[in-house]
Write a structure and sequence with these properties.
By secondary structure, this protein is mostly beta strands. It is built from one helix and nine strands; from the N terminus they run αβββββββββ. The longest helix has 15 residues.
């Protein structure tokens, strides 16, 4: 390739590259988590999704006019619960787990009109199970009463006990490090050269078991989390290629 041809190719690429911009911002939103696992051996039990919140700070780096990289630090809730049914209705257990999470997202702009842009997000994330709380309702065998039913037969009624406590991590059982992949969409609105706002919907699929491999034939448990967030961005640096 001659020097002249190389210069021509570079000049043709410049319009697509445009300028590089660095932005920082904040976001907060709603999370819905499902613990993907097999509970077929737990009769009269339903695995329910949990609703929680998430907050975070982020850093965005525009590579080209249509490609950008995003990262940051989030605190996100990944909640789930087990609820009993049938004769055990009213018994449940809820796990409220919070993770510090670092995503690395590559966003591709596929639609743009005036000040509005739509991005396809894809990437990876790493997370650390920071703290948790567990609450629920269980039978209290020490608080029961006897009575006579309508057929004149004696019956025993066990009262349900409500509890709420901090979850104590088990170093043998609990895997507090999580990683996986991300897929989602983001709609960005540019107010001016400095400020913009966005709404994003990202899906986080864990590839790591929530439990360590501490016994034979254990059932894996994976978090599947949808996070819908609103945020704002401030441009702190903009550099044009020459």
């Amino acid at each position: 390739m001659t020097k002249k041809k190389a210069i021509i190719i570079m000049l043709q690429l410049l319009p697509t590259i445009g300028s590089t911009q660095i932005s920082i911002g904040l976001e907060s939103g709603y999370s819905n988590n499902h613990l993907s696992t097999d509970i077929s051996n737990r009769l009269f039990t339903t695995n329910k999704n949990g609703n929680s919140i998430g907050i975070g700070c982020l850093l965005k780096y525009d590579i080209t006019k249509r490609v950008e990289i995003q990262t940051g630090l989030n605190l996100i809730g990944k909640e789930y619960s087990y609820s009993r049914n049938g004769n055990f209705a009213g018994i449940y257990e809820t796990f409220k787990n919070f993770y510090f999470q670092i995503p690395i997202i590559v966003a591709f702009k596929f639609y743009e009109k005036k000040k509005t842009s739509v991005f396809l997000n894809t990437g990876l994330f790493g997370a650390y199970w920071a703290f948790a709380k567990v609450n629920g309702r269980v039978p209290n065998i020490f608080n029961s009463r006897d009575s006579i039913n309508i057929n004149g037969e004696p019956s025993q009624y066990i009262q349900l006990y409500n509890y709420s406590e901090k979850y104590r991590f088990n170093t043998i059982k609990d895997n507090r490090v999580e990683f996986g992949w991300i897929m989602g969409l983001c709609v960005d609105y540019q107010f001016n050269k400095k400020y913009s706002a966005f709404i994003a919907c990202n899906y986080y699929q864990s590839l790591s078991d929530q439990q360590k491999n501490y016994m034979y034939n254990q059932t894996p448990r994976y978090n599947q989390t949808a996070f819908i967030s609103l945020g704002c961005l401030l441009s702190i640096k903009k550099r044009k290629f020459k």
